[in-house]
Amino acid sequence: MRRILSAMATGLVFGVGIVVSGMANPAKVLNFFDVFGTWDPSLALVMASALVVTFLGYKVVLQRPTPVLERTFHLPAKRQLGLPLIGGSALFGVGWGIAGFCPGGAIPALGSGQSSPITFVCAMIAGILLVNGLGALSARRRALP
Amino acid sequence: MITTFTPIEALLGGSLVGIAAVALMAVHGRVAGMTGILTGAIWPKGDWDWRVAFLVGAIAAPVVVTLLTGVALPLQADLPSWAIILGGLLVGIGVTFGGGCTSGHGVCGIARLSRRSIVATATFMAATFVTVFVIRHVLGGF
Questions:
Q1: Mind listing the pLDDT tens digit for each residue in A10-61?
Q2: Which residues are CB-neighbours of A75 under 8 A, at least 6 positions away?
Q3: pLDDT digits (tens, 9 = 90+) for A27-38
Q4: Would you place residue A145 in the very low, low, confident or very high pLDDT band (cuts 50, 70, 90)?
Q5: Which of A72, A132, B60, B72 lies at a C-alpha separation of 20 to 30 Å from A112?
């Protein structure tokens, strides 16, 4: 129960940060990238402040032996750069540039009850399920004799 | 569409995102990447309970902010539906192959000085910049 309440509170703080910063608003996000048009530099300050706080906080937290409510820290172990990382990130950027929502902005935006984030998140989930589904399918094929 | 530069809100909001990222690591030992949290909740590999709780908290945020401040979340997305759907599909496919998004790679990954996250962030920021430029200044908008 403590795990659930703590995760929910953390999600709320994350979401409030996104909402206060304006990053749940696609117009504001897209304007950051429109340097030659209606430029709004806000996103740079959002990322910079989030990065500084996270960098400093991780330095302290990751020196502890374990997290408060779990047995281990789950840190990504992958090291290699490759086509999935670069091609996937490029595709993500194209989609972000078209719609103005990224996953971290769109999920809190759902709570506004407006239709555009709902449409976006449904399509995004379809994309996530598609890739994971095809991945599982090809893994099963490979496992067959 | 013009939006005003809001440095105070940006720094405050960004700091809150950072605090949430540090708290999720400190308490749950997890990276606060929205892609990973969402994927684990809809494509369960075991521990989906804290993920769903995190998502519920994030979705409640606009409601809480509106209750506290009386201001509704400004959300301007005057795009045709096909563009929102296309964008959503590309984002979903892209972040799955890329292993993360702005929160996972851009904040948590770079904070760990991960080479993968630095490359991923540089790549998607550049791709977004080019896409917005082409849509707005080559195609003249949707």
A1: 999 999 999 999 999 999 999 999 999 999 999 999 999 999 999 999 999 9
A2: B31, B112
A3: 999 999 999 999
A4: low
A5: A132
3-class state of residue A140 by DSSP: helix
Contact B9 A43 (CB under 8 A): no
- Give the whole-angstrom CA distance, residue A112 versus residue A101: 14
What does the domain layout of chain A look like in residue ranges? Answer: 2-143
Give the up-direction half-sphere exposure of residue B3: CA atoms within 13 A in the CB hemisphere: 28
Q: B14 vs A99: CB contact, 8 Å cut-off?
A: no
CA torsion sign, B131 to B133 to B138 to B142?
Answer: positive
Residues 6+ apart with CB under 8 A from A83: none
With residues binned 3-state (H G I as helix, E B as strand, rest as coil), the percentages for chain B, rounded to 5, are 75, 0, 25
CA distance A78 to chain B (A): 8
Which amino acid, residue B20? A
DSSP, res A35: T
**Tokens coding A106:** 């769109």
Q: Give the minimum alpha-carbon distance from B1 to chain A in angstroms, rounded to a whole number.
A: 7
Please give the ipTM for the structure prediction.
0.96
Tell me the pLDDT tens digit for each residue of B3-12.
Answer: 999 999 999 9
Which H or E element spans position B123? helix B115-133
Q: Could you give the C-alpha distances from A108 to A46, A101, B111, in angstroms and in order? A: 16, 11, 22
Cβ within 8 Å, pair A4-B125: no
Distance from CA of A24 to the nearest CA of B (A): 7
